[in-house]
Structure formats: C-alpha cells, structure tokens
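A.,

Following up on our hallway conversation. Structure tokens first:
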C-alpha cells in the first residue's frame, strides 16, 4: 500500500506492485481535503505488469534496436532495477 500526502489531500494506491483493484474496484483512491467521499479511480490494465515490459523488449529485439522503443525505461534502468531487487532479495535470505 502506498499513501502520497499533499497540501490538498492524499492519494492511496492499495496495491502498487500488481496494480490490482481494491474491494471497491478502484486502483487509486483520492482523498481531497474537505470532501467526505473519496474519488475512486479505476485504471484499465493493458496486460500483466511484466508482460508489457517483455513485449516492449521483444519488439525492440525484432527491429534490431539496441534499446526498446519506449521513453519510459532504458535497458540500463531495467538492469539497475534488477540489481536493486536482487540485492533486496539477498538481504531477505
């Protein structure tokens, strides 16, 4: 669960790792100051979290590209993310 606080309220993301919906069907819940009922936002899923990344890499490899054609994350970013996750897992063992 992630909570992001700001000067006009806060945002709740019940499941940031899998982006699944909570029991109300919302992916994101926005709590605005002075408003009793929070806004529930459902974000449509385009596919599994890692499936989208794998598909992006597969398209880049098929095109002969050295990097995926995606501004969201470079291969260096992906490798850095994997190194961080591996270090985190090693600490848990």
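Then the amino acids I'd put at each of the 93 positions:
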């Amino acid at each position: 669960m992630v909570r992001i606080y700001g000067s006009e309220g806060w945002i709740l993301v019940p499941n940031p790792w899998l982006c699944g919906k909570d029991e109300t069907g919302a992916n994101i819940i926005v709590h605005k100051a002075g408003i009793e009922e929070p806004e529930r936002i459902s974000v449509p899923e385009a596919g599994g979290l890692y499936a989208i990344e794998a598909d992006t890499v597969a398209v880049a490899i098929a095109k002969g590209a050295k990097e995926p054609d995606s501004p969201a994350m470079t291969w260096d970013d992906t490798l850095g993310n994997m190194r961080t996750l591996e270090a985190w897992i090693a600490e848990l063992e």
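Strands lie at 2-6, 9-13, 28-32, 39-41. Curious whether your intuition agrees with the design.

B.
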